[in-house]
Amino acid sequence: MTGSQSNIVHVIGAGLAGSEAAWQVAKAGVPVVLHEMRPTRMTEAHRTDGLAELVCSNSFRSDDAANNAVGLLHAEMRRLDSLIMRAADANQVPAGGALAVDREGFSAAVTRALDEHPLIEIARGEIAGLPPADWSNVIVATGPLTSAPLADAIRELTDENALAFFDAIAPIVHRDSIDMSVAWFQSRYDKVGPGGNGADYINCPMTKEQYDGFVAALIAGEKTEFKEWETNTPYFDGCLPIEVMAERGPETLRHGPMKPVGLTNPHDPTTKAYAIVQLRQDNKLGTLYNIVGFQTKLKYGEQQRIFRTIPGLEKAEFARLGGLHRNTFLNSPKVLDGQLRLRAQPRLRFAGQMTGCEGYVESASVGLIAGLYAAADARGETLASPPGTTALGSLLGHITGGHIETVEPGTRSFQPMNINFGLFPPLATVPTKKPDGTRLRGNEKTVAKKQAMSARALADLDRWIADHLRIAAAA
């Protein structure tokens, strides 16, 4: 790597956020060293030494830029030449209205792009503690599985206790072990998404009796024991274990991952299923399917026993069983400034899930903007933040102070957040009429409002790119 430490950006952690950050820095013409501790030191959730390894779902969620906030974030990242989105688009698998990827192909594409870039050096080995003092421009993107020495150093430096929650992993089933005389292919409401055909999920129906027995088994099943220091760690509601949802009430799962709406069983079209379990394709070959929403802390033996009571999965063979890992994140509004720099030591900038965003795309997007900020710093410039009307800007706003403080003294209210339209500023003018002049009614108003927010976001992002990044916005 050529250049002095003063103009080299060091990125610690090569997950989605770190990989995206390194790409953006190098693309801006600034040399970068990307540090990854695997395989020298593995984590509880990772299985390979590949960069940007997906350890939970293989879904990037909705790709609908006009009506869904995460789909809008996809579109914004594509306009900014995101490596993560480029690799996802090139390795997508059918998933209804969602963008899902072949996880091995996706990681390989990211690894190859970073390894081949002339301004990127990939350094394998753990950064145990704070980085050396002569590293003047650092992005810490170590994720929810940050190693203890670095996490402890950050806590000591910030004098803030990091919060933590558990993120759960759903099991993966071999496709050829699913009984398709019972199950069937169909996307909810036959919706067609990127790489799909409207019949992208495998559906397993349940009667009321089967559902009640399944819920009872989940609640009674033997769970993984928590360590003493983990017992008070809260879950993130976007990734609750299936048995925790079951404990919240007998109908909770029917209104969550097992809702039966928008689906018709071709084996028995006149009988309405009481609940439905869905499986989504997990690799490009179509040989593996993950059970949607079935993150779990059940012990392995219990998982196999209970999940094989699902109609169609009686003989299921599991390529991977579910599990849990501990996630940590900063109290970012307190310890980070508006450009994601640590107030106590501004040479350190943070990115990804550790900042308090949740989700693959959100983590990568924060890595993207952190990379742009770091590259500008290396050039002696200051980059204006993206508009708060954009998905990227609204998520950044949440992380750096967009939440409401709790009124209870001593209570820390900041929590991880997926991108959603609730983070966006209100529209100056709310649509009331259709293009033909007729009045919007009912749900049409909500749809029109989301579409107007999305259109505003993309227009504002294009202006920001033209004004501050001096690159052409991609279509």
UniProtKB/TrEMBL annotation:
GO molecular function terms attached to this record: flavin adenine dinucleotide binding; tRNA (uracil(54)-C5)-methyltransferase activity, 5,10-methylenetetrahydrofolate-dependent
Main location group: cytoplasm
PROSITE patterns per record: GIDA_2
Cellular component per GO, a single term: cytosol
Binding site for FAD: G13, A14, G15, L16, A17, G18
Gene Ontology BP term (one): tRNA methylation
UniProt entry tagged with the keyword Signal: no
Obligatory cofactor(s): FAD
Superkingdom assignment: Bacteria
Keywords: Cytoplasm, FAD, Flavoprotein, Methyltransferase, NAD, NADP, Transferase, tRNA processing
Keyword Flavoprotein applies: yes
Xref: PANTHER family: GLUCOSE INHIBITED DIVISION PROTEIN A, METHYLENETETRAHYDROFOLATE--TRNA-(URACIL-5-)-METHYLTRANSFERASE TRMFO
Primary role: Catalyzes the folate-dependent formation of 5-methyl-uridine at position 54 (M-5-U54) in all tRNAs. NAD-binding protein involved in the addition of a carboxymethylaminomethyl (cmnm) group at the wobble position (U34) of certain tRNAs, forming tRNA-cmnm(5)s(2)U34.
UniProt-recorded name of the protein: Methylenetetrahydrofolate--tRNA-(uracil-5-)-methyltransferase TrmFO
Organism whose genome encodes this protein: Bradyrhizobium daqingense
